[in-house]
Amino acid sequence: MPISFLTSAGDSRTQVPPHLQQIAIRSLDLGLSCLDKFVKGKVVLKGPLVSMDNGKYVLKTVIQELEHQQNLPRGLSSIGAVLFNKLARDFSEAVNTEDVVLMTGFTLAPSPTAHKDGLHSCNLQLGGAGDGGGACVYVCPALNASRSPAHSVTRSLARHPARASETQVTKYTYTALNKLVPDTIVNIYGVVTFFKQPYRSMGTDYCSFLKITDPSSVKVSCTVFQGELHNHPQVFRTGDIVRLHRVKAQSFRGSINVTTTHGFSIVVFDGTVGSPVVPRTSSRKLHFTAEDEQTVERLRRWASEQTALLGAAAVRLADVEPRMYFDFTCQLLAKAEMDRNCTLLKVWDGTECPYPLLDVSVEPDAQHGSTAVPGCRKGLVASVLVYDDHIKMTQDLKPGSYLRIYNLHAVPQTTSAASPSGRSDHLCFHLHGGTSYGRGLRILPKDSPDLQELQRALELLPASSDDIADVSLMDVWATPPESLEEASCDAERTCDHTLEQVPLSSVTKSTPPKTFHTRAQLKTFQPQKLFQCLKLYCPQCNALQNVPDEEAIGSAFHRAVGTAAFGSEPWLLTCFRESTEPGRKMAVHLPSSSHNDQTSLIFLEGAALEDVCQISEHRAVVPVRWHDGKMSFLDFSVPVFFQGSARHYGCRNCSRSECREPLPMELQEWDEKKVAEALGVQLLQYMLLMKLELDDGTDSLQALLWRDAEIFFGVSAQDTATDQQLQDRIQRTMDRLCPPEGTMETRPWLNLCLATYSAEEAGRSTVCYQVLNTKTVCPD
């Protein structure tokens, strides 16, 4: 029998064949004979069961030696195991993470991922080559595991009924920081002495960095690699307590540090003595006992007596000095995007700066939120300019959020003023790029003592007689202006299929093509910058590309201005006009078929983007250049013709490169398709494309939304490209379906029509999912 259950992990020697001898994971080597050996460890990672094209199955798992085995010689204590066919299927149904397993009948093979995952250089292989070799897995289920209803598990519990009533919780062993040994997997506690906010690593993950200590007075560095920002440690200040499970100790330049490995998890606690012991974690499964609470309290008391651990307190606006760097706790009043590398935040903390503050102004339409404060005192509102890699953290910020900004720089800036010298210094605050000295910003959690102190300060702020009405700023911004929970938003199917509603677990197990009705919640979506979901699509060659931004289009026109040759044939008339760019001229060409009416095309050579936009308000404009005596399109990376605010792009692969003479026609009504056909252009169509991660508790999957995206949002993709109200409508819809600060429990359930299909990629067939025949129902 490939899977066999044991009654006790500690009594395994009396339940496995006596000729088998245990071997430590770190002692395994490719040249070693494993016929009479078994490996014992805890399952820390269990991969999915994968069906191969030949009808075979494969599953990968990772096992780690138990804590009481860690006194073995140094070496890696975790190893990957690859199971095949029937053994893989049985393992998938009967074994969970945290179970203790004994594996025998395995062979050793080089691990192709050892340099990435930090595991043993070998993999265990079981159940392959026709399922011969006597491979077997002995399992002792974790005492607190919720078992699958699979038949094999049920039979096991029937043989050992006492196990069904056991409720003992798995006990974790924690290692003091001065007892860490290189190349071991450990669990540790520590007090944070320094930290960096997550930043993009050289690969696909985000990286965050901590320095921690404990009563042994040893300081250890910890590097965390995780693909999602919410999985990183939620540390807000030095003195916070962290608990790390399954981290790997390493030796580096004479010191010990730790890094993440398979099965890693981290929990953070506020370090303030007397505050509630509330864990900060993104994990749905949390192992936390009364003993853990005692450990946190003990570390809090110890840290409170170490003055070196307290760190610098956050500075109030009233205490700021020019050129200083400081941590700042504040509330966001408004924000505005200055350019792609800078975002403006308008913030306050209820205190007044003793120095004049620079008022960075933007257009009212570009600003989200309001800076109206009690008494309209300008010294209360600070302008913070956020640069470079911190821009991502500002994108989802909502006015009213409470922030902690780390290593903020008070920069004196000279401005013209009514003073004897005619100049005056005003303070502006810069959050420079990079993560040096812990630079970054975070939204404060609701249980943060700093947030509660800030709220009390704002509530006590005296109101001024100049305030409008009797409503204080706290009434407006202490909570979002519209509660997402009150504004219901869901989705309903528009198809007439008579299908039974099924869970996502049934969808993911199906063989495409097939259509399903299901009900799920939106977990995440991409792209997060919603303007990036607008794409250009060629219906002829199926090419897909992003819509160029204004800067890229302007640069293309600027290059063309400098290379204009100003030809004349085959066009009827050429006249020259001053361009908006100083010292430049542009040529206006009319086709010979033109009657010079207000609906005919004109062709501009040597024009700047501003020229085209001005003229296109009255005439349809085709930007061109002169090449080898012929008129050609300017560049297919820019629109091939403009009409008012509409911009029409052509496919580089399916369009002519030369402008051909348009046939005589009267454009009494604007028809871009007729114009494109006359010019020899294959038009690109605007479309919306998003990837939605859906979850219903039984399973999760990623589905594309594109073919019926216009139905889903109730908008036209082409109109959305030029209509800010439609863009705002999509933003409001996504904010309600997937609130940036909400939890899965508060998100609406969506009734969806899902289709599965196969797609070929690099010679391999992949199962894909698509949302069809579904529309959102949101109050506007």
Broad CATH class of the largest domain: Mainly Beta
Main beta-sheet annotation: 10 strands, mixed
| pLDDT averaged over residues | 77
Summed up, the domain count is 5
Q: Helix coverage percent of residues? A: 10-25%
What is the count of DSSP helices, taking H or I runs of 4+ residues?
15
**pLDDT under 50 segments (min length 5)?**
145-169, 417-423, 463-487, 568-573
How does CATH name the architecture of the largest domain? Beta Barrel
Number of strands: 39
Class computed from helices, strands and strand pairing = alpha+beta
Radius of gyration: 32 Å
Classified in CATH, the superfamily of the largest domain is Nucleic acid-binding proteins
Q: Assess the beta-strand content as a share of residues.
A: 25-35%
- N/C terminus separation: 61 Å
CATH-assigned fold name of the largest domain = OB fold (Dihydrolipoamide Acetyltransferase, E2P)
| C-alpha geometry | globular
